[in-house]
Amino acid sequence: MKSDLLHATIIRDNMTQKIKQEIPAEILKVARNVRRLVLRESANDGTPGSTCGWCEFASLQLICRLEKLGYKPVIQYGFYNENAHCWVLVCGHILDVTSDQFDGPCIA
């Protein structure tokens, strides 16, 4: 069981590294800033450190900030398992600063 956990951690770390390598630095900077904003707001809301329920707020923040930089991001709505969720598509990349609520890789 412990080796499975280690394997999952390595895969997640590799996914995070791949994400960091493929997404342009300017977009990553915006994503990190929005994630910090979400974490601050969730702390004010009484759920510190949790991104659960913040996907639409985060996605709309990403859309506004990226459009100001000249990008053409698109918000996508869907489901993760049975949970309603949303994220942003930009330059062919999925940008989801709240994916950690589903144990996905996060942009730190």
Structure notes:
The protein has 108 residues and is an alpha+beta fold. It has one domain. The chain is built from 3 helices and 3 strands; from the N terminus they run αααβββ. The protein has a 3-stranded antiparallel sheet, covered by helices on one side. It is globular and about 35 Å long.
Q: Give, in spatial order, the strands making up the sheet with the most strands.
A: 1-2-3
Q: Any idea how many domains?
A: 1
Secondary-structure-based class equals alpha+beta
Beta-strand residue percentage? 15-25%
Q: Tell the overall outline.
A: globular
Global Rg: 14 Å
* Relative helix content: 40-55%
The ordered string of helix (H) and strand (E) elements is HHHEEE
What is the number of helices? Answer: 3
Tally of DSSP β-strands: 3
Distance between the termini: 27 Å
Major beta sheet, specifics? 3 strands, antiparallel
Overall pLDDT: 80
